[in-house]
Specification:
With about 675 residues, the protein is α+β, with helices and mostly antiparallel strands. About 25% of the residues lie in helices and about 20% in strands. The chain has a ten-stranded antiparallel sheet. A four-stranded mixed sheet has the order 1-6-7-34. α4 packs parallel to α6, α5 runs antiparallel to α6 and α9 packs parallel to α11. The longest helix has 23 residues. The radius of gyration is 29 Å and the shape is globular.
Length: about 675
């Protein structure tokens, strides 16, 4: 007999959300002997304010404390959310109150000017003053040595704070010159002063790295200084550029897409022919670099898709849909190519295999030109059904050589490559994948406190990171010595050659966050007889407000198309969390066809632009995906967008996966929908 409830999740098998309610009342005995009555201050009329209420004479009795709602996360491994009704009621039906104020204009030079004017008898309490934007003091020619001396005398915590919050571009340049030396050709800024480090390598001569990082990540720093400090290829180290996406303004206007420096006239520039509006860069171009991080905190290295030095993107609302398409295209391309290489016995030799693909084409099991039958996993044409839900024809069709201009794969070529991988995985003779998982994430927004705590991200320039995850990891042979003693030579980009007794090594599964989803939905089906994601979608569509106020909006959905749904989770783990879920059966990017990838790219950008419009300045985005060789048809691809809010840094509650919230999720969804008309993508 299947149960109608699965412990730890708010999603019931009958497609509704389960929400608990605490109605506290209690009595507390006094275990105190002494009273310490004191005066705290006085009111305007002279009445003293006492602390006597803090020292009751009898037991404390609370008959009706605030109602608190308890909502288990849909995914039990993410904990439980608690909503205090008294807090949430204040914003119920008032979505405009769910926002953060924009950062204020800050200029120490203007403060000093105002102070100097007041010392001369003038007085102004208005801030920022009318003269702020036009002030002669903002012109670099007016920077005086006395002001530079003043900056040099600031205590370091104050200097760091000013570098973080200043909106005065010339002030930021003045501070930048305190921590590094700029090189000029005449009046043209061309680079930094370098020096030799202890190993003899040339590195930028930076005297205060924290100050340098804070200034370089302040969006009010002039773009030419951003470029030489952190954006030029090579300025942050020797990471190789392994991929590129570039679209020029003329191509965007004509509705063509340039894939990795290659023009494919069949591809639309933007979804539905729209041209995205870019607030920051008025050139209208899109340019992305893919960097390889060899020695990474992610084992086996990772890639980073960075907006390039000639395409400054320090705000999400400066990011065009074309930019997002390019960043994600690099992710899709790199992942597909590595999977194809692995299936064809050339893992770690991207260059050799790419050359072969370009010159000779690829063998595709069961894929015919034209692809009329779109019925297999990932919507690729197939023949007779094999494992993983795919089909296979007896014939092997040869796809023409892959299209490439300028180094990358054209969009139609990328889709053929994807379909070939799925067909290979559907073959009973398919080799097992050593790297069968994906990893993608995006840390948007830089923050640094004057106390020395870094608050978020490595740099403000928009970048996304991705890698592949192995199925298993070797166990350290403690009985025979330290792990890693018998290392092989590095082969290509990533692979390490097995040297000794590879078949005898003990292994354990390697971690990927999507595995937690896979385990949970497997247990959910076993216990309830239902597929979790089908129940989750029904619960979202059938949602009801927990406060019982039927006169207010009850929808959690922010945006939806035929492929994806952007929504507010019933139990938010960040107070402003959004999620993007594939509606169709798509568990990872390998199963995402052209339409699904376009919807994912658009939905991710939409989520981040909404959050930034509401005032979020630091957002972590993660992907929960199933393994590429998984045969589970229940798991759907899902993204989580997690803003950091100023007064919610995370403490002991969050360490226990107890998430405290001050609004109802339906009101947050209303606040998000109200921003849709203000986005650069519609």
């Amino acid at each position: 007999m299947k149960e109608n409830f699965f412990p730890g999740t708010c999603v019931s098998p009958d497609g509704r959300f389960l929400v608990g309610i605490h109605d506290p009342s209690f009595r507390v005995e006094l275990l105190r002997k002494n009273d310490f009555i004191d005066t705290l201050g006085i009111l305007e009329d002279g009445t003293p304010v006492s602390n006597s209420v803090n020292f009751p004479h009898n037991s404390v009795e609370e008959l009706s404390a605030d109602l608190v709602y308890e909502i288990p996360n849909p995914f039990p491994f993410r904990g439980t959310t608690y909503i205090n009704s008294a807090w949430a009621d204040r914003s119920a039906g008032r979505p405009e109150t769910i926002s953060l104020p924009p950062p204020p204009a800050v200029s120490m030079r203007e403060v000093l000017k105002q102070w100097e004017n007041r010392s001369d008898g003038a007085s102004s309490k208005k801030w920022p003053p009318d003269s702020f934007e036009k002030s002669a003091l903002r012109r670099s020619s007016d920077l005086s040595e006395s002001y530079e001396d003043f900056i040099s005398l600031l205590p370091r915590p104050m200097l760091l704070a000013l570098a973080e919050c200043s909106t005065d571009s010339h002030e930021l340049v003045t501070m930048a010159k305190r921590c590094c030396t700029f090189q000029y050709q005449g009046t043209h800024l061309c680079g930094l002063q370098f020096k030799r480090n202890r190993t003899g390598n040339a590195v930028p001569d930076i005297s205060d790295h924290d100050l340098f990082d804070i200034i370089a990540n302040n969006r009010h720093l002039p773009d030419e200084y951003k470029r030489v400090m952190v954006l030029k290829p090579g300025i942050q180290g020797n990471s190789e550029i392994t991929g590129e996406w570039q679209v020029h303004a003329s191509e965007m206007e004509s509705g063509t897409r340039k894939s990795l420096s290659s023009t494919n006239g069949d591809d639309a520039c933007c979804h539905n022919g729209e041209r995205s509006t870019v607030e920051g860069d008025q050139t209208g171009k899109s340019h992305i670099f893919e960097y390889l991080r060899r020695n990474s905190y992610i084992p086996w290295g990772h890639f980073a898709a960075n907006t390039a030095d000639d395409t400054v993107r320090y705000k999400v609302n400066d990011l065009s849909l074309q930019d997002m398409t390019g960043m994600r295209q690099l992710y899709y391309q790199r992942t597909y190519l590595r999977l194809w290489n692995a299936l064809h016995g050339k893992e770690g030799h991207d260059g050799d295999r790419l050359s072969h693909l370009l010159n000779h084409g690829l063998s595709v099991h069961g894929i015919e030109e034209g692809g009329e039958n779109l019925e297999k996993r990932g919507h690729c044409p197939t023949g007779n059904r094999h494992k993983n839900g795919t089909k296979k024809n007896d014939q092997i069709h040869l796809v023409p050589p892959l299209k490439r201009e300028g180094g990358g794969l054209a969009l139609d070529t990328l889709e053929r490559l994807r379909c070939n991988i799925l067909a290979c995985l559907g073959d009973a003779a398919c080799p097992s994948l050593r790297f069968n998982g994906g990893l993608w994430g995006w840390n948007f927004g830089f923050g640094y406190a004057q106390s020395g705590y870094r608050l978020h991200a490595s740099h403000q320039q928009i970048h996304q990171q991705y890698a592949m995850v192995p199925a298993e990891v070797d166990l350290v042979p403690f009985q025979s010595g330290r792990g890693g003693e018998n290392r092989g030579a590095v082969d290509g980009n990533f692979e390490t050659l097995d040297v000794v007794n590879a078949s005898d090594r003990e292994r354990m599964p390697s971690y990927a966050c999507g595995d937690m989803v896979a385990r949970f939905i497997r247990d959910y089906r076993s216990s309830t007889g239902q597929g979790f994601f089908e129940c989750y979608r029904r619960a979202i569509r059938n949602n009801q407000r927990m406060d019982g106020n039927n006169s207010l909006p009850a929808s959690l959905i922010v945006h939806e198309d035929a492929q994806v749904m952007l929504f507010v989770p019933k139990a938010q783990t960040s107070q402003w969390e959004l999620q993007l879920m594939a509606i169709k059966n798509c568990g990872n990017i390998l199963e995402a066809d052209v339409d699904m990838r376009a919807s994912l790219d658009r939905g991710i950008l939409m989520a981040l632009q909404i959050l930034e419009k509401m005032g979020a300045r630091m957002v972590t985005s993660i992907e929960f995906a199933k393994r590429f060789d998984s045969t589970d048809r229940d798991q759907h691809l899902i993204y989580s967008f997690l803003p950091k809010l100023p007064h919610s840094p995370g403490a002991f509650s969050e360490a226990q996966l107890r998430w405290i919230n001050g609004h109802y999720p339906e009101d947050f969804a209303s606040a998000c929908r109200a921003q849709l008309c203000h986005l650069s993508i519609k």
